[in-house]
Write a structure and sequence with these properties.
This protein is an alpha/beta fold and about 350 residues long. The protein has helices at about 5-10, 30-35, 55-60, 65-70, 85-95, 105-115, 125-140, 160-165, 185-190, 195-215, 230-245, 260-265, 265-275, 285-290, 310-320, 325-340, 340-350; strands at about 15-20, 25-30, 50-55, 75-80, 100-105, 150-155, 175-180, 250-260, 295-300, 305. The protein has one domain (about 75-350): Rossmann fold (3-Layer(aba) Sandwich). α9 crosses α15 (about 310-320) and α11 (about 230-245) packs across α16 (about 325-340).
Amino acid sequence: MKIAVQELMASQRWYLASMDGTTASYTEMDEASFASSPFLDNRIVLPPSGKKFKTRIQAIATSEPWAAKPPPAPHRFILHISHVGSTLLSRVAGVSPTCLSLREPVPLRFLAQNLQDQGTHSAWQSPKAFDALTDFALSNLGRPLGDRTRVVVKCTSWVNPLAEHFFTKGAVQPMQVVGVHVPLENFVANTLKGNGGLQDLRSNAQSRMKRLQKLLPGFDRALYSMNWGQIAAMSWLCEILTIRQVCNQPGVQLKWLNFDDFMQDPQAQARDLAKHLALDWDDQTDSLLSDSGVLAKYSKANKAVDFTNDERIRVLDKFKQDNQALMTSASAWVREVISADAKLMAWLGSAEQFPHI
């Protein structure tokens, strides 16, 4: 199967589902498929046609139309600290009739996995080749789909370090970024109450510890000496500081969004979210959001389940009540780690309530 480069450049109808160092894999998509897919990984929902094709990246990137003027990279991003409601927020953004919301594109995961070895002899790509792959992926992700011309990319949390790399790609427009977080106690409770959160901690604890050592000079803790509450607290601190660092550069407009606050007044908060991301939003969009059911469903799997904010709060409160010692150790761990840095302490907030951003 062969698709003209001009057709690829014009639309996300052919979506870059995955890539490696040499090959790009595309799959045919439509609006309904993007909206239905909880994530764009193995949980992607394909249209009935289900057409796919592979091609060499170099064949596209060096073709005359693409090389002369590649599609512009996206400049609207949702970053988050993991398990804090960012999937729901990306669905809220997608209610805007001109927004194409992309949830956790696999090509960015590929780049994030390869980023850690950049500059070493174990890297698969030279710095120049890695830059070219990043440019190629971002150009693919920035393409429109029909009237949905404003692309919002929601990244998985362990792609956060890569954001610094692609925020420097020189987009014409400012980078509009939302950093999603919750206070420490709710993060610890939500992460530890289910298998998904524990799996995230097991998979990413070592890399987060290494990152935190770079983010906090003098940080000296051993992962093997920490309980699960402290490991969750470490993850919370690492990802918040990572987002702060990668967004601390010219042209990046970062809006911190506390998901707990969002759920207290979702209609008003949705308007603020849309305003920051420069998405079309009016009274009719408010009605679309109310009618969509997005705010009352948990949808990380292909089949969404009803789950209200009241139920969410009840579950979190019960976990905190049943695991008071674990919660106390998590808060104490963060307090001890940041106590030597007065500026960081002030930025995060009081010792009793994290964060106050």
